Amino acid sequence: MEAHIAEGLERMGVAAPVEPTAVQIKYCLYARKSTEDDEHQALSIESQIKEMGTLAAREKLEVIEVRSEKHSAKAAGQRPVFQQLLAGIREGKFNGILTWAPDRISRNGGDLGVLVDLMDQKALVEIRTYTQRFTNNPNEKFLLMILGSQAKLENDNKSLNVKRGFKARAEMGLFPGRRIYFWLKSELHFTSRTGKHLSLSNIYNLLRNPIYCGVFEYPRGSGNWYIGKHQPLITKDLFQAVQDKLAEENRPKKKSQDFTFTKLMICGICGSGITAQEKQKGLVDGGTNTYVYCSCCKSKDRECKNPYIREDRLIEQLLDLLDTLDIDEIGARHLIEKEVSRYNKLRAAMKDKSEKVSAKEMDICKYAKYLLENGTLPEKRELLSPLKGRIVLKERKIALES
Fold first, then answer.
1. pLDDT at residue 98, as a whole number
2. What's the maximum distance between 2 C-alpha atoms anywhere in the chain?
3. Which residues of 225-240 are buried (b: 16+ CB within 10 A; e: fewer)?
4. Which residue in 56, 164, 239, 307 has the most C-beta neighbors within 10 A?
């Protein structure tokens, strides 16, 4: 039948169509893994190369080079290895791409458009994935653009979800972020040499240390920088990106108010310090009452469950604690002597000839309780600081531990 058609066309003076010569496809195997991947679902670079290498052997595909990188594909033109791959296609070094899935090569419109343009120019003959093929065919190019656009949509939605989640945490009174802290503690069970978990401040110090990208300052704060002979763990670009992120999170904050017991007590569950904050409660008559709540600052354990306690109830327990202490353990004796001395000087200046008051006549315990209820913040701290032990707050109860 085909011979008759060709003969008929020749009699009519029409040249028979010439079958296109099969183009030899030379592939570049490209693997990518980045921070946008889900650890439990995305294949590692090694697995991608192994699976696609097996496919190439089975299908007898000619693989010229194997290239891999660990960069995000969310922004166009930000992957150096991928840019080298495109340059190799333009130079005719290879005309096919072998990769695990479409989202490995593009998650943004810019890079996706470059790939389609190369197909239109016939420089890129085929993109082969584990389950699909994309050639210079309108339907296949359209499908490729759909899958690439879907990956971009996932990225955009993920960004919105993260921002919404951060806002929800802030509205709950929880500081957004700190994912590195939870990752090191809960998933990697990372500890120091002494077996303790890193505090949040330790993690910030690590992230700000430039020695991990190959440089160091000596002495610190001198402005003298040196290039280390050690192998850098990260690139300078990654280190700078981390610093920019930290700068965004560390905007100037409102100066915290100083409270009475924050520097005198520790959490009985995780060992962190105790912090305090004011809360206002509306009254029926339209006024407000202000209460101070003391709680764990969670510097050593962000998941600490030690509950808060109101400061007035904390003082009640401190008053009871004073009754159990020896007089010499209460740091009020010198305060009484100071007050009595000032009182006697005042009387002398007023030429009061009555007998002077003696500090020995004062009830130290009663005076200590008076200061605890009515004294100034420095007086309260001065009263409690000489205690032989530290005050521990646990489950809304305080105790003096040696």
1. 93
2. 145
3. eeeeeeebeeeeeebe
4. 239
Phi, psi of 344 (to 5 degrees): -65, -35
Q: Please report, for residues 124, 190, 191, 377, the alpha-carbon distance to residue 194 in angstroms, rounded to integers and kept in the order given.
A: 56, 11, 8, 37
Contact indicator for 125, 135 with CB cutoff of 8 Å: yes
What secondary structure does DSSP assign to 92-118, as a single string?
TS--EEE-S-HHHH-SSHHHHHHHHHH
> Strand order in 309-310's β-sheet?
274-282, 288-296, 309-310
DSSP single-letter state for residue 278: E
Cα gap 3→35, rounded to integer Å: 59
Statement: residue 238 has pLDDT above 60: yes
pLDDT at 231 over 60: yes
Angle at 322 between CA 266 and CA 299, to 5 degrees: 5
CA distance linking residue 302 with residue 169, whole number of Å: 14
Question: How many angstroms separate the CA atoms of 334 and 340, rounded?
Answer: 10
Cis geometry, peptide bond prior to residue 17 (ω within 30 degrees of 0): no
- pLDDT given at position 39: 41
* Full DSSP string of 126-166: EEE-SS-EEES-HHHHHHHHHHHHHHHHHHHHHHHHHHHHH
Q: Considering only CA atoms, which of 233, 248, 264 is closest in space to residue 378? A: 264
Q: Which residue has the tokens 């197909």?
A: 119
Q: Which range, of 37-46, 67-76, 201-210, averages the lowest pLDDT?
A: 37-46
The CA-CA-CA angle for residues 310, 313, 317, to 5°, reads 135
| Cα–Cα separations (whole angstroms), residue 33 to 67, 103, 146 | 12, 10, 21
CB-count exposure of residue 119 (10 Å: 0-12, 13-18, 19+)? buried
